[in-house]
């Protein structure tokens, strides 16, 4: 089962089975948080609780959004280079999707930042939602600063995938071990 923890803006538009207060996702990635963005056309922004991976999905028709989320998540995982067996297991666990209120202020805060950045990109002409999600997956996220720093890196570490960051060569290896010069 997949639990989508939606903001009030999203829950007012999307009707579907409601998760009980103590229910959590049975997927390896855990719950996804979502909000409605009133762009033209309207968009739903989803952010994974464990990795902060962002996924954008057209909101309309809102009545079918919960049915379309597993497809969008699957596509995002595939673009991030996640292995097919992991994707298949996640997809199998997402056969039932329920909606619930948000319950983690950290994820909501990251989602708010992604909404702000996404809106700026959207206004600048980036209208491909998949590309927008992939672009923001490479954005540093504060809560990940002591782990992998970026949602795509956190996902790659979680699932053991190569992912986009596996191909990155640091410009200055060992930089994190150096101490800054004295003023």
Helicity, in percent?
Answer: 25-40%
* N-end to C-end Cα span: 55 Å
Query: How many strands, what sense, and barrel or not for the largest sheet?
Result: 5 strands, mixed
Rg is 17 Å
Low-confidence sequence ranges? 162-183
Shape descriptor: globular
Number of helices: 6
Estimated share of beta-strand residues:
5-15%
Question: SS-based structural class?
Answer: alpha/beta
* Helix-strand string: EHEEEHHEHHH
Number of strands: 5
Average of pLDDT: 87
Spatial strand sequence of the major β-sheet: 4-3-2-1-5
Walk me through what this model shows.
The protein is built from 6 helices and 5 strands, in the order E-H-E-E-E-H-H-E-H-H-H. With 183 residues, it is α/β, with parallel strands linked by helices. A 5-stranded mixed β-sheet has the order 4-3-2-1-5, with helices on both faces. Helix 2 (65-79) runs antiparallel to helix 3 (84-93). The longest helix is centred in the middle third of the chain and has 19 residues, at 105-123. It is globular and about 35 Å long. 39% of the residues are buried. Mean pLDDT is 87; it is low at 162-183.
Keywords:
183 residues; alpha/beta; 5-stranded mixed sheet; 15% strand; globular; disordered C terminus
Ordered list of secondary-structure elements with their pairings:
Elements: E1 2-6, H1 8-13, E2 32-37, E3 43-48, E4 54-58, H2 65-79, H3 84-93, E5 97-101, H4 105-123, H5 129-137, H6 151-159
Parallel strand pairs: 1-2, 1-5
Antiparallel strand pairs: 2-3, 3-4
Helix pairs in contact: 2-3
Describe the structure in brief:
The protein is of the alpha/beta class and 183 residues long. It is built from 6 helices and 5 strands; from the N terminus they run βαβββααβααα. Residues 162-183 have low confidence and may be disordered.
């Amino acid at each position: 089962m997949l639990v989508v923890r939606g903001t009030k803006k999203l829950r007012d538009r999307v009707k579907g089975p409601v998760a009980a207060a103590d229910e959590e996702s049975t997927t390896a990635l855990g719950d996804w948080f979502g909000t409605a963005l009133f762009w033209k056309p309207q968009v739903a922004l989803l952010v994974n609780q464990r990795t902060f991976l962002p996924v954008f999905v057209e909101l309309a028709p809102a009545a079918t959004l919960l049915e379309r989320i597993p497809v969008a998540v699957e596509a995002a995982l595939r673009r991030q280079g996640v292995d097919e067996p992991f994707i298949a297991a996640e997809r199998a666990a997402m056969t039932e999707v329920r909606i619930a209120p948000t319950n983690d202020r950290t994820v909501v805060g990251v989602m708010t930042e992604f909404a702000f950045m996404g809106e700026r990109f959207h206004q600048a002409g980036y209208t491909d939602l998949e590309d927008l999600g992939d672009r923001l997956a490479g954005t540093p996220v504060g809560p990940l600063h002591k782990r992998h720093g970026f949602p795509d890196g956190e996902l790659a570490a979680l699932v053991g995938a190569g992912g986009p960051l596996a191909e990155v060569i640091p410009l200055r290896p060992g930089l994190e071990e150096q101490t800054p010069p004295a003023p």
